[in-house]
Amino acid sequence: MRALATIVVLLAVTVAGCGLETEPADGEAEDVAEVAGDDPAATDDGKDDSATSLPLRFLPGELFLPTAKIQTEVRRVFRTEAALEEALGIDNPGIDFSREWAVFYTPGMSRTDLLPGFMARIDTVRISSTGLTIMVTTSLEQNGDCPGRRSRPFLLVAVPRPETPPPYTRFYRNDRTRSCPTDVTYLDGVPFTAAQLAASLRAANLATDTQLAGAGITGTQRSIITGGRTWPSLARVAGTTGIGATTMTRLRTLGESF
C-alpha cells in the first residue's frame, strides 16, 4: 500500500470556458487528458443533443490522495487500473476496470484564487452521437452566499466502460457560484423552510420505526433519532454525531406526511 497524505482543504473558485489540454491521440491510452479528434459532434460548446449520458458511480467512503497529486489542475479519464494508480499514487479504491472507467478532476490546490467551501464536481460524462468522443463536463463550484461547507478539492467517479471505446476525449467546463435563498435554514447543508423545520421535527419525534425505514432511515441513524426523543429542535438532531446530510434530507421528505 502506498502511504497516503491527509489533505487539508481550505479554498475555492469559479472560472468559465472550455479548456484544451492535448496529448498524442491514442485509442488505447491508459489515461487520457484531452485528445481532440475529427469528430463533428464534439463541438467547442459541447452541445450534442444526441449524446449518450453515462451514469456516474460515486465511490463510497472517503478517499485520500497525496497532496502533490492535486497541486495543479488535472482532468483525466483512466481506462486501466495501472494508469490510475500510477497517476494518483494510490491503490485502486474499488473501480472494476473490466467493466468501468474512472474519471478524475481537481482544480489544483496551488491556485491563489480558491475560496472556502469550493467543490470539485463532475457534472456529466457523455458519449458523442458519433461514438468517437467521450465528453466530460467538470465544474468548479464556488459556495457563494450559501452556508459554510467542507471543500472538496478533487473527485473520482466510475462510469460504465463503453462497449466501443471512443478514441477521443474532450473536456468542458461549467463553473458556477451557488446562490442560496435567505428565507431558509440550512442544517448539514440541507435547506429547510420554517414549515419544513416544524414538520421534520414532528417526524423526528413521532415517526414509527416502520415510517423511518420507509423514508430510508435505518440502522444507526434510526436508533439515534428514536433514542434521542423528545428532540427540542431539528438543529439538535442535525448536530448529533452520526447524523448527516442524507438523514436530514430523508427527514425533510418524511416530514411532508406529518
Question: In brief, what are we looking at here?
Answer:
This protein is α+β, with helices and mostly antiparallel strands. It has helices at 81-88, 194-206, 209-214, 219-227, 234-238, 245-255, and strands at residues 31-32, 52-53, 57-58, 74-78, 100-106, 119-127, 133-142, 155-160, 168-173, 176-177, 185-187, 190-192.
Distance between the termini: 50 Å
Number of strands: 12
Spans where pLDDT lies below 50 across 5 or more residues = 1-28
Radius of gyration (Å): 21 Å
Task: Outline the fold blueprint.
Elements: E1 31-32, E2 52-53, E3 57-58, E4 74-78, H1 81-88, E5 100-106, E6 119-127, E7 133-142, E8 155-160, E9 168-173, E10 176-177, E11 185-187, E12 190-192, H2 194-206, H3 209-214, H4 219-227, H5 234-238, H6 245-255
Parallel strand pairs: 7-9, 7-10
Antiparallel strand pairs: 1-4, 2-6, 3-8, 4-5, 5-8, 6-7, 11-12
Write up this protein:
- The chain is an alpha+beta fold and 258 residues long.
- The chain has two domains: 31-177, no CATH class; 185-255, no CATH class.
- The protein contains six helices and twelve strands.
- The protein has helices spanning 81-88, 194-206, 209-214, 219-227, 234-238, 245-255, and strands at 31-32, 52-53, 57-58, 74-78, 100-106, 119-127, 133-142, 155-160, 168-173, 176-177, 185-187, 190-192.
- The strands form three sheets. It has a five-stranded antiparallel beta sheet with strand order 1-4-5-8-3, covered by helices on one side. Strands 2, 6, 7, 9 and 10 form a five-stranded mixed beta sheet that branches. It has a two-stranded antiparallel sheet with strand order 11-12.
- β6 (119-127) and β7 (133-142) form a beta hairpin.
- The protein starts with 30 loop residues before the first strand and ends with a helix.
